[in-house]
Design a protein that fits this description.
By secondary structure, the protein is an alpha+beta fold. The protein has 15 helices and 19 strands. The protein is flat, with a radius of gyration of 34 Å.
């Protein structure tokens, strides 16, 4: 059925046909718990407190439960490699009207703090496997049009349902959520809402008492943007899905090892024979005294004591733990940036640094090509349509405006190697003007004033040398 045929049905059938989840809500809750450290090992029946022994010797034993938040580490690292640095926007058109429109676009981008929004968006997609950004415009108390964007996610109480036509294009986007209204008697009424966003209008349904109907308080709204005001993002699995079993194995191993340490790490005194007296724990010169016992041959035998020690460390456990840890980082494309791994690097060139992080950069490139490159391109197109709709005089310019974008990088640039290569390629000639160099100096605030000061100092040095 086409979207128009679905919308022609009665509200209950329309909502049912459009409420087809791509990701189960329960799966999202499980993933969010894993990210927050609420892992299955906590409810393992073998790790619950239990009573051992009987009578006066009975005691409560609580096994160790060690939580490894690799899910958070993998997600945070992946997000930082893609959106840790701001997205770079540029406009190839050099005419004045295009540059003015581009300035307005960047102003809105910065005002909405979209570089920070990108990080929250990607983190949500890594966890819940889908999220969306909803755009809208409104007039404030001073009748000034404001543009806003909100993140739609299960964590924020949203159920989202994109709908695609037979060609794979999104022809509708639906959002289900619940609001609370205060009743006349002072009670609170829960209202379930279902909003359908189309390219030409927005349709609102609500459910009170189990029956869906058109929302009389929110009639059908025309869509002045002429585009569905939503950008939808999704990925097949959670960011850590490929290593989930390895994480669980690592948690079991480290928890078991903690139990072993509790039992055997401290020295244990093993006593043979009858002990007459034991030293006080505060005694400086500790001594054990044993009672002599006559043996079969008439000789007196005295007992003795020795420490029971763990002579053989679990080498296989250590090897497996190292293997599991390495596989978690490798299979999730997450570089291990622990202190032990980076303390001996020394001065590494930018090219060598990128080769070290090549696995993470491959993952970043895959994210760009499969999810966020297309998403940001649609966001830019939608923002242009919104800015043109709220400012009709700039509508044509915004429609024709070309905006290019490039993902930033948190890895430092190897400027020294770059300048050396450029100088080598020009046979030792200058490859940068002094003004450009000063402009890129982070210690300089006013480039013009700095250039004048440099010229003054150079003139003084020249005059001094001529006097000599």
């Amino acid at each position: 059925m086409t979207i128009d045929e679905i919308l022609a049905l009665e509200p209950a059938k329309t909502v049912k046909l459009l409420s087809v989840p791509r990701v189960d809500v329960g799966d999202k809750e499980t993933a969010r718990k894993a990210f927050d450290g609420d892992h299955a090992i906590k409810s393992d029946p073998n790790r619950q407190p239990k009573t051992v022994g009987e009578g006066v010797n009975a005691r409560l034993v609580t096994p160790n439960i060690e939580i490894l938040t690799y899910q958070k580490k993998i997600t945070v690292t992946s997000t930082a490699f893609l959106f840790g640095a701001p997205v770079k926007l540029s406009c190839p058109q050099k005419d004045a009207s295009s540059q003015d429109a581009f300035t307005e676009f960047k102003t809105q981008w910065d005002a909405l703090k979209l570089d920070y929004f990108n990080a929250r968006l990607m983190e949500t997609v890594c966890i819940e496997r889908e999220a969306a950004e909803l755009w809208y415009a409104y007039k404030d108390a001073e009748n000034i049009t404001k543009i806003r964007v909100i993140l739609l996610s299960a964590e924020n109480g949203d159920q989202i349902f994109p709908h695609f036509d037979m060609f794979g294009d999104m022809d509708a986007f639906c959002r289900k959520y619940t609001v609370s209204n205060e009743k006349s008697d002072g009670g609170v009424e829960k209202i379930e809402r279902f909003d359908i966003y189309l390219s030409d209008r927005t349709v609102h349904y609500r459910r009170i008492g189990g029956t869906w109907s058109e929302d009389p308080e929110r009639p059908v709204e025309p869509n002045i943007f002429k585009k569905i005001p939503v950008v939808y993002y999704s990925q097949k699995n959670t960011e850590w899905a490929d290593v989930q079993t390895l994480i669980e194995r690592a948690e079991d191993m480290i928890s078991n090892h903690a139990d072993l340490n509790d039992y055997f790490a401290g020295p244990m005194l093993q006593v043979f024979g009858e002990l007459l007296s034991a030293p006080d724990k505060k005694s400086m010169a500790k001594m054990l005294q044993f009672k002599g016992i006559p043996g079969p041959d008439g000789k007196i035998n005295y007992g003795h004591a020795e420490y029971l020690t763990w002579e053989h460390s679990p080498e296989s456990l250590k090897i497996e733990m190292e293997n599991v840890r390495g596989l978690i980082h490798s299979l999730s494309h997450t570089p291990d940036l622990s202190f032990d791994n980076v303390k001996g690097l020394g001065n590494v060139s930018g090219i060598a640094l990128k080769l070290m992080f090549l696995d993470a950069l491959i993952k970043r490139a895959n994210k760009e090509q499969r999810v966020y490159g297309e998403g940001l391109a649609r966001r830019i197109s939608l923002m242009k349509a919104i800015l043109g709709a709220v400012n009709l005089s700039a509508q044509k310019t915004m429609a024709e405006l070309k905006i290019e974008f490039e993902f930033g990088s948190i890895l430092p640039d190897d400027l020294m190697t770059l300048m050396q290569n450029l100088t080598l390629g020009t046979a030792g000639r200058a490859v940068m003007s002094q003004r450009t160099a000063v402009n890129h100096n982070p210690l300089v605030d006013d480039v013009d004033a700095e250039m004048k000061q440099i010229e003054t100092e150079q003139s003084g040095d020249m005059a001094g040398s001529l006097n000599l």
